[in-house]
């Protein structure tokens, strides 16, 4: 198959397996989504969904959040890991949203990326899932699967994002990145993966998968 044919096969198979897509992080608006995504770094979605109700019971808006101390935020989010960094980020981004953006999460990638604790992937998730702006956030699952399916070289997350944006239609990005994540978790894990039983790797997987078990 050509790379375009592989991309079409992947898109069709994922749409068949996951006809409906929704982000697994519970949220109510762009701000609560932003906070949840910040908390999800090196933490499971399940754990984040356990912690965010506790945090939002104290502060559900940026105005309320900036009134909490960094220490108060940290005490609540500690189970999510990296709590010193994440608490400073959440407090700082809340202050910026209030002081520079009128209390509303900006619908602007550059503005989001300038906030503490918000990297390119986090900003991309918010743009895609809160505002419907086409974006292709690449996490470890997407990076791994793009390599396995020979859709990218795997040299860097940035390269993977660029490669996937080039081969998939822009209007499919927001659903597709979630579908790939779901597939990676359920069918194509990092460890213990049998490419012969994988609905996609068995068809277009790299040859190395069948010898190295990557």
Please describe the biggest sheet, giving its number of strands, its sense, and whether it closes into a barrel: none
| Mean pLDDT level | 95
CATH C-level label of the largest domain: Mainly Alpha
Shape: elongated
What is the fourth-level CATH superfamily of the largest domain? Hypothetical protein, domain 2
Tell me the count of domains. 2
Strand elements, count: 0
**Can you write the helix and strand succession as a string?**
HHHHHHHHHHHHH
Low-confidence stretches: none
Q: What structural class do helix, strand and pairing data support? A: mainly alpha
Helices, by number, come to: 13
Strand content bin: under 5%
Enter the CATH topology name of the largest domain.
Endonuclease III, domain 1
CATH architecture of the largest domain: Orthogonal Bundle
